[in-house]
Amino acid sequence: MVLKFQLISVLILFIYFFNEINGSILSSSSSSSSSSSVDYYPIESSGRCDDYIGDTTQSNCSIYLPYKRIYISDTFNQTKSLEMADRMFPFMRSLNSCNQPSVFKTFCSYLFPECQLYTNNKVVVAVPVLTCYEECEQSVSLCSGKQYFNCNQTLSSGESVPRFPEDSYYYNFEEYQSGILDLKCRNTFKEDSDSSNSSNNNNNNNSSNSDNVTPMPTETSSEEHNYNNSHRSLVFKIFITLCITVPIILIIALIWYNFKRRAIKLKRLQEQQYQQQQQQQQYLTINIENEQTPLLK
Asked: What is the pTM of this model?
């Protein structure tokens, strides 16, 4: 009875996880990328590329920025950023732990993010290259400013996406009949001096008003992005299914083996007892016949 109950339990688990896996496949194939679990960053209609305003007597971000074109929008105001740089540079220079190039790189890339342009041959869209969360945390820690600056802040008051992404962040270009743009955040602490210098030299040659425009991702990229997400989810569910069902199957197999072995032993014992009873019965019958024979004579 217990064995039947366990077999029924395993069957129910298989049916449940099979339905879950099939449901994930069907939902991933029928849903669009807008229903994906990925949080897409907003594409600002006011976004554009512009030249870096320039250094002042208080701040000099130009020596820390490996690019010349800055992202400008209603969210990223270069004038306000320059005012903040003028206020913060003297304070940062006054702290020994804070006064280092990597910290200034992080701070300047936060205030003046690099601008990248993408097109589908009909429209041109500008997006910023954001600073990584790890670099923000390190810089704020070195400047002893964790109580004054929060690296977990969102992009703006009306958005839920982080201002400092951990690694990759995404833009959805479906409204432009294109795919998903996967951008890497700027990792300033891992940029060595050689790559920084070469980038500065290259960007010095590209300081004109012309911008490099990259084609938008194709719809295939969007499909691949959704496929990768569904594939990872499917593999995870299969892994969980195996982790749950395989031990149960092994336990049931062991229980069945022990049950069968005990049943065989019990059957043999019953056969032996039956043979012994038959022998005893025959022995008693012979004895009774032997005792009754003289009386008949």
From this structure: 0.58
The set of residues, in sequence order, having a beta carbon less than 8 Å from that of 84 and lying 6+ positions away, is: 111
As a whole number of Å, the end-to-end CA separation of the chain is: 61
**Residue 270 DSSP code:** H
Residue 172, Cβ density class (10 Å: 0-12 exposed, 13-18 middle, ≥19 buried): buried
Bridge partners (DSSP) of residue 265 are none
Which has more pLDDT, 55 or 227?
55
d(CA 36, CA 33): 5
pLDDT single digits (tens) 208-228: 445 678 888 875 444 455 556
On the question of pLDDT at 151 being above 90, the answer is: yes
138 C-beta neighbours (distance < 10 Å), count: 17
Q: Which amino acid is it at 287?
A: N
pLDDT band with cut points at 50, 70 and 90 for residue 92: very high
H helices within 174-218, ranges in order?
193-205
Collapsing DSSP to helix, strand or coil, 288 comes out as: helix
